[in-house]
Design goal:
This protein is α+β, with helices and mostly antiparallel strands. Helix 2 crosses helix 8. The chain starts with a helix and ends in a 28-residue tail after the last helix. The structure holds flavin-adenine dinucleotide.
């Protein structure tokens, strides 16, 4: 997304990817992503989300296949839950369009969800489903159309930034440039040890389920969403586009991973049985005989906010990292902010909550660091 925005602004830019563009091994793997405007992570994200939505629609128009399905997003839970409070705060501060649904209204419109007493639904009509791998391909394609060069299957081995510029050693030779932007996901720890922002690499596990009546789980009937219903009942849900499977992410299993290169996303049958029991208690109409699972990684900071900015002492080396399980939806506006930062050393949207040197509470419980 940064490459797209830089190239669009006429910057001579080279993108370097260690695998193929649109691969499944990074933070964007796993076939689908949620877009929400009414944001449980805090109202400070709403300007980034509003701008991202415009850019998602622009990218959609450039893509041969739809990458943003504007089906709306649901948040389900007790109104007093802190995440729902933040959703309401976002709605109030920015006057966002929304609908609060009582338990009986929810049962009528979304009978797929087995609700608990006291729960409400908040429908965010600007939400939707993103198709990440194709979205990345579309953004890289747009960047190339604006003149960017893209090197695939090329690993960056080392970046040497000094007052005369940056030397980027890769498996295909050295690139010399005025500056570098490092958006290397969980690999940024390895690439820039001690200089990539303070985050942990954690595994999230995605499960896909067959359904008994696929029509009930298409985006118009079963929008994307997040549910906060108790310790083993917090999860996110994603509709099916082709009638085959829905996806759920139970927000409990965040195992720390030391080396992303040695990571194997295989999930044990025992764990999948546990997830199946939890999810079938919360969603009805699933075909529990058809299930598959895979683990994916992202970098999580202690306060769940990403890092955006120059490595201290190097104003020609910008790092974007620690997107804490919720970075995909804001990626286009982050990319635009990178282009502004690189050209003018400022951003239109306030990014201070992502500052490198902010204070963080390192003792925060890992399990509180939910993704989607
Ligand atoms: C299971 C799961 C579910 C999620 N769900 C959502 C959701 O619903 N909505 C949402 O908004 N967010 C979601 N997220 C978060 C979001 O997908 C991530 O925060 C985001 O994709 C991270 O982007 P990134 O650019 O930092 O990393 P990545 O997407 O991993 O990109 C980094 C890229 O850099 C490349 N690279 C790394 N090192 C090198 C090197 N040395 N040389 C060359 N190339 C290199 C990698 O191969 C990779 O392609 C989820 C994350 C996970 C794991």
């Amino acid at each position: 997304m940064a490459l797209w925005q830089l190239a669009k602004e006429g910057v001579d830019a080279i993108g370097v990817e260690q695998f193929g563009v649109g691969h499944d091994r990074g933070g964007a793997g796993g076939e689908s992503r949620i877009f929400r405007l009414a944001y449980k992570e805090g109202p400070e994200y709403v300007p980034l989300l509003l701008r991202s939505r415009e850019l998602w629609l622009e990218l959609n128009s450039l893509s041969p296949i739809p990458i943003f399905h504007p089906c709306g997003a649901l948040t389900i839970g007790r109104p007093e839950h802190s995440d729902l409070s933040q959703v309401f705060n976002s709605i109030e501060q920015f006057g966002l369009d929304h609908r609060v649904l009582s338990i009986s209204e929810m049962a009528g419109i979304y009978p797929q969800h087995r609700l608990h007493e006291g729960e409400v639904g908040i429908f965010d009509p600007a939400g939707g489903l993103l198709i990440p791998q194709q979205a990345i391909e579309a953004a890289v394609g747009a960047a190339k159309n604006h003149g960017a060069i893209v090197l695939e299957q090329t690993e960056v081995l080392e970046i040497d930034a000094n007052s005369t510029g940056v030397a980027i050693a890769t498996t295909n030779g050295t690139i010399r440039a005025k500056r570098a932007v490092v958006a290397a996901g969980v690999w940024s720890k390895k690439l820039l040890p001690g200089r990539s922002g303070r985050f942990e690499i954690l595994r999230s596990v995605l499960h896909w389920f067959g359904t008994k009546d696929p029509a009930l789980f298409m985006p118009d009937r079963f929008p994307v969403g997040i549910r906060r219903s108790g310790p083993d009942s917090n999860f996110s849900f994603f509709p099916t586009l082709d009638g085959s499977e829905i996806k759920c992410n139970l927000h409990i299993d965040k195992t720390a991973v030391a080396d992303p290169d040695a990571f194997d996303g295989t999930i044990s049958e025992e764990y999948s049985e546990f997830v199946k029991d939890q999810i079938t208690g919360l969603v009805q109409g699933l075909d529990p005989g058809r299930i598959r699972a895979k683990g994916y990684l992202d970098g999580y900071s202690a306060d769940n906010h990403p890092f955006f900015g120059d490595v201290p002492g190097h104003d020609n080396l910008t790092v974007l990292s620690g997107f804490s399980g919720h970075g995909f939806k804001i990626a286009p506006a982050i990319g635009e902010a990178v282009a502004e930062h690189v050209r003018f050393q400022r951003t239109t949207i306030d990014m201070s909550h992502m500052a490198f040197n902010r204070q963080m509470d390192d003792k925060k419980d890992l399990l509180e660091r939910n993704s989607e």
